[in-house]
Amino acid sequence: MKTLTCIVIGAGYAGIHAMKEIRKSLKNGEGSQPVRFILIEKNTYHFRKVLLFKPAVTDEEVRIPLAQLFPEGVELLQATVTSIATIEKKLQMLDATGNEQTISYDILVVAAGSVVRRPEASSGGLPLATLDDAQKIREVWRANLQLAATEANSLERKRLMTIAVAGAGISGIETAAELAYYVREEARQLGLEPNAIDIRLYNAHDRLFINGPEKVSMKLEQFLTDSGVKVVNGSRVLQETDGCLRLPDGGELPVGLCVWTLGLMPNPILEQWGLPVTADGFVQIDTSYRVKGATGLYSIGDCAKVVDPRTGRSDGMTCKEAIPQASRLAKVITADLNGQPAPVHTGYMDTFSIGLGPEKGLTWVRKWGIDLMLTGKLGYRIKRFTWDLASTIK
Question: Residue limits of the FAD/NAD(P)-binding domain (predicted)?
């Protein structure tokens, strides 16, 4: 009996869940077709991207070795895919040593994920886009506080103790809240006045969290204000130059640090692979995650345009949506292999959990037209649970 080769590209949230669910669905056993499972990832670890703000404020580890997640039954290839030949069912890749390899597949899942948007190079400041970026942000604000502790000039001291977060999506909200807590704690230890720390969150929209109801926006803003974050709605940062923000109204603000949190975009490598993509860069798939014009090729997660056929609504780029997609994908692949009707995508219910600093959070759920909010420690516990579930941490 021929051994099937099942490859998953990407070890983000969608990729690791896809591999786990497909393995469950395609069990090797008596009477079943043997399957070779391969996970291709450029790193040796799963990167917990939703926790990227953590190394910007603490030394918390946000990487999990893939060998820990998949101790057996999965071949882990550290490599970068360079092209996919959908007709021949082959892909080319460069391994960790730079050598080119070609591998054939029967089932291929593209879960290449997303990348964090970066500002223009001339915009100044520091983007929160990679682990190195996060660690650099932490180094800068800590160094600024140490300078402030000995600075005699009150205006310069105020500048060093001012941080702007440009971009008020969930990442920006969580980053600002964490900074508000940890920067103040550091200031206290250095003998500085914690309340003199000035953290501002710039939001281009007229309210926070435009995906939810206004009462959730108001609650979020109140939480941030109580935590020491000044929310500036209806304004965005144009540029940071030499310690000074430029704002659309012509105003300027002296700052010690500007952090850009500009949201996500699908991985730009997708077009290089020759896959069909939408105008905004997402892989084009049908309602059962099959890539258009290819056999045995599927895509889920942040890199795919996943649309609920009943409502026409697209899934967001969040880890909570990757989990049910992966579970349904495993059923789709099993059905396709057996020549049976496959399930179609169903959108996830309206729910978001947002971290608001250590042991604080807000979870919003809409069900049957009713909005439910859970806040404080309970909201945080739910958020922490979703973070851990997304990375298959028990």
Answer: 6-324
pTM for the model: 0.93
Q: Which domains does the chain have, with CATH numbers?
A: 4-116+265-348 (3.50.50.60), 121-262 (3.50.50.60), 350-394 (no CATH)
Which residue has tokens 């914690």? 194
Distance, C-alpha 172 to centroid of its chain: 12
Q: What are phi and psi of 214, to 5 degrees?
A: -60, -35
CA 125 – CA 239 distance, rounded (Å): 8
- Walk along the chain (394 residues) and give the pLDDT tens digit of each residue: 789 999 999 999 999 999 999 999 987 544 578 999 999 999 999 999 999 999 999 999 999 999 999 999 999 999 999 999 999 999 999 999 999 999 999 999 999 999 999 999 889 999 999 999 999 999 999 999 999 999 999 999 999 999 999 999 999 999 999 999 999 999 999 999 999 999 999 999 999 999 889 999 999 999 999 999 999 999 999 999 999 999 998 999 999 999 999 999 999 999 899 899 999 999 999 999 999 889 999 999 999 999 999 999 999 888 889 999 999 999 999 999 999 999 999 987 788 899 999 999 999 998 777 888 999 899 999 999 999 999 998 7
